[in-house]
Each structure stands twice: as C-alpha cells, then as structure tokens.
C-alpha cells in the first residue's frame, strides 16, 4: 500500500496518473523517476502534479527524484543506493520511533498489524495500527486492562470512552507524523491530547473526481488505477475489496 499517492504527468503528456510514492519529501512540481511496472519495469521521467493521502496500491512507483538520477544516451541511471523510501510514509517509520522512545510493543489480534502502549502518571495510551489507519485509546489510571495474560494487547470499546479511529485515506495531514506527535506529547505527560482524539480521514478511498464518475457510471478509474483487471477484485485492506465499476464490498 502507498499512503502517499503522487499524480504525475509524463513528458509531453497531459493526463495525470496515480502512482505509489514512498517518499514523504516529494511535492507538487518535483521531477521524478518512475518505475513503470505496467510496462515491464521501464524507467520514465515525470512531473508531480499533486500528492494526496489515499493509501492506494498502484502498479507504478517513484524510484527517486530526477535530480538524484543520471540521464544520458543510454537512458536513466539510478543512484546507489536508490532512496525509494524516505520519511513518514509507512507505519514502520512510526514503529521505529515508538520503540526508540520506550513504547512497549505487543502482539495483537488479526484485525491489527501491530500495537504499542505507554503509561504516564495518570493515564495509559494504546496505539493500534490497522492496514488503513490507526486507533488510539486513552484509559484513566495506571493500570492497562487491555493487556492480556500472554502480554498481548486487546482492543475493546468497553475499556474506555476515549477512543478514536483515524483513517489513512483522505487524512489531509500526514497521520504517521501526527501519531508520533501524539506519542511524544503523551510520554511527556503534557495533557494536551484533545486535538489527537478527533477522527481524521474517511474509509471511502475514492477521490472526488472518481466519486463523481462512479455516480455517473462513467469509469472504472480507481479499480484500474489500483491494477484491477479481468473482473477480479482488488484487496484494499481492513476487509475491503474493490471490483469493476468501482464497486466496494466487505471481506
């Protein structure tokens, strides 16, 4: 999955195509090198029109900035090593920060990819990572009732009314950076957490343009952009599948 999706225009082209972007430093106007897996893995120059937080799984992806590559008569030569992944673009980036700052990692049920906890002087915080988002739970007191006998972490709405579900797609802010900001604030026991407990993002991964086209029955835009073909559904995570005609269904 690519949390950040870059919409790019290829040389002498006008149509903007969505591609995976695993670099948090890429922005509109940047020239990039794209690996076109849909065309046998060839490298192409492209210009970024915009980036959006969508958490799609496109076929093609950004290898590096054009300024980091070499262009000559033989084609495009990538730098070694190639900085394909950079910054807060994956959950692993947050996990490394949490582990480095002392948060305790736990195994968790199949609905989550991972979980962390920390207790300060007055509350316990649990952070659960889903394929398509992050759940944060605050529990009063120094006891963590979500801990299981085997050291795992169990999510339950009954444990605390202070629970929020954030969704990666359409988050409008970098949710991974936001979770790090929350974790640091909670660890410092600052008490200023209200702004982190308001949900961001939405489960519908379609852009407004694709929503409009789907309503008018004009396009399989998102299905095709995510590599759908032959009528087979594309798995989007969190039990969601997308089929031809941009039709959604649960797993």
Rg, rounded, reads 20 Å
Describe the largest sheet. Answer: 5 strands, antiparallel
**Average pLDDT over all residues:** 88
Helix content class: 10-25%
Distance between the termini: 17 Å
Put simply, the count of helices is 4
Structural class: alpha+beta
Query: Which series of helices and strands comes N to C?
Result: EEEEEEEHEEEEEHHHEEE
The amount of beta strand, in percent, is 35-45%
Query: Can you tell me the residue ranges where pLDDT is under 50 for at least 5 consecutive residues?
Result: none
> How many extended strands?
15
What overall geometry do the principal axes of the alpha carbons give? Answer: globular
Strand arrangement in the largest pleated sheet: 2-1-4-3-5
């Amino acid at each position: 999955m690519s949390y950040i999706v870059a919409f790019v225009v290829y040389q002498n082209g006008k149509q903007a195509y969505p591609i995976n972007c695993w670099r948090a430093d890429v922005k509109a106007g940047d020239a990039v090198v794209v690996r076109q897996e849909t065309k046998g893995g060839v490298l192409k120059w492209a210009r970024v029109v915009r980036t959006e937080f969508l958490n799609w799984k496109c076929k093609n992806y950004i290898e590096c900035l054009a300024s980091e590559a070499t262009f000559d008569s033989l084609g495009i030569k990538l730098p070694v090593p190639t900085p394909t992944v950079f910054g807060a673009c994956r959950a692993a980036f947050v996990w490394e920060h949490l582990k480095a700052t002392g948060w305790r990692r736990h195994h968790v049920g199949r609905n989550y990819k991972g979980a962390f906890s920390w207790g300060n002087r007055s509350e316990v915080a649990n952070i659960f990572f889903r394929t398509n988002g992050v759940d944060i739970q605050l529990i009063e007191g120094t006891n963590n009732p979500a801990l299981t006998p085997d050291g795992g972490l169990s999510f339950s709405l009954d444990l605390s009314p202070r629970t929020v579900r954030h969704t990666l797609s359409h988050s409008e802010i970098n949710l991974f950076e936001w979770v790090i900001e929350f974790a640091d604030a909670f660890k410092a026991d600052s008490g200023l957490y209200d702004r982190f407990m308001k949900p961001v993002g939405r489960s519908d991964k379609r852009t407004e343009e694709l929503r409009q086209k789907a309503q008018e029955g004009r396009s399989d835009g998102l299905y095709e952009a995510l590599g759908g073909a032959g009528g087979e559904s594309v798995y989007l995570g969190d039990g969601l599948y997308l089929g031809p005609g941009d039709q959604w269904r649960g797993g």
